[in-house]
Structure to design on (297 residues):
């Protein structure tokens, strides 16, 4: 009597590709499943990675990569996870994926893994932080997501990503900076070194003032460190005096002048009674009209 072979998933590439049971919920599949195996997968069966830390992809660089793929093919396979039968999700290689779509490529060589969401987030982060051009804010957001979504402490995170605890802390502190400063870091208008100095300034308005000065005057990190130490002196020289509200009777006077001249005017007065009236005009004829309305010959 012939013995019927068991039809378990096994460890072969065909099993992970063909079985509808092979997805991230399968209990019988380890993270090392068919490690190193490569398959050519239809590009329309692969979705992008929702845990991708990178937000910006340079269009000209993608176009260059797309042309290279057309001429040379894809040299380094992408890495995907199986989500279910004939459905995959990127773990790493989104630039190659985007460039291939741009080039009209139908199939992509891929390493296939089985991973849960926590592994996906961690792999995507580690794959990306190894790239020199990932900006500091993208790294900071990714670190924060690992801590919040994977319930890691800063010590555990530092071990996972191979960074000192102090380095991880410095990145996380960037997310406490105002949105304008975070945008400047993301756009490379200021560096991580500049940002570390700004973190030590307690007042948000002062942080913004220094940031604008860094950008306007192309200050070095050392310049900013000195600036932070001497900031009390800086504030007296670069900040504008606060605007003093006009007493009600002067507001009425200003409104009367505006009504008579049919244009907006400015009236400034300090507590000692000194000030000025500014009446704008757009041409010689306009100026003559103002003089006529004022009854000046």
């Amino acid at each position: 009597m012939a013995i019927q072979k068991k039809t378990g998933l096994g460890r072969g590439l065909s099993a992970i590709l063909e079985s509808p049971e092979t997805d991230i919920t399968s209990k019988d599949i380890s993270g090392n499943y068919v490690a190193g195996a490569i398959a050519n997968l239809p590009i329309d069966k692969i979705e992008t990675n929702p845990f991708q830390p990178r937000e910006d992809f340079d269009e000209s660089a993608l176009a260059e990569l797309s042309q290279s793929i057309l001429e040379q093919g894809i040299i380094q396979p992408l890495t995907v996870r199986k989500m279910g039968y004939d459905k995959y999700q990127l773990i790493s290689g989104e630039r190659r994926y985007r460039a291939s779509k741009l080039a009209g490529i139908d199939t992509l060589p891929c390493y296939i893994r089985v991973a849960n969401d926590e592994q996906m987030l961690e792999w995507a982060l580690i794959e990306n932080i190894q790239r020199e051009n990932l900006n500091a804010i993208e790294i900071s957001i990714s670190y924060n997501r690992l801590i919040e979504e994977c319930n890691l402490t800063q010590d555990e995170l530092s071990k996972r990503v191979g960074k000192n605890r102090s380095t991880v802390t410095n990145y996380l502190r960037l997310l406490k900076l105002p949105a304008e400063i975070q945008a400047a870091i993301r756009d490379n208008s200021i560096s991580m070194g500049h940002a570390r100095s700004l973190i030590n300034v307690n007042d948000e308005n002062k942080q913004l003032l220094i940031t604008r000065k860094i950008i306007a005057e192309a200050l070095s990190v050392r310049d900013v460190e000195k600036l932070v130490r001497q900031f009390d002196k800086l504030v007296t020289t670069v900040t504008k005096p606060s605007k003093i509200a006009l007493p009600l009777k002067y507001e009425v006077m200003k409104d009367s002048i505006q009504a008579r001249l049919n244009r907006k005017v400015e009236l400034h007065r300090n507590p000692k009674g000194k000030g000025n009236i500014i009446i704008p005009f757009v041409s010689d004829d306009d100026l003559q009209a103002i003089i006529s309305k004022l009854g000046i010959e």
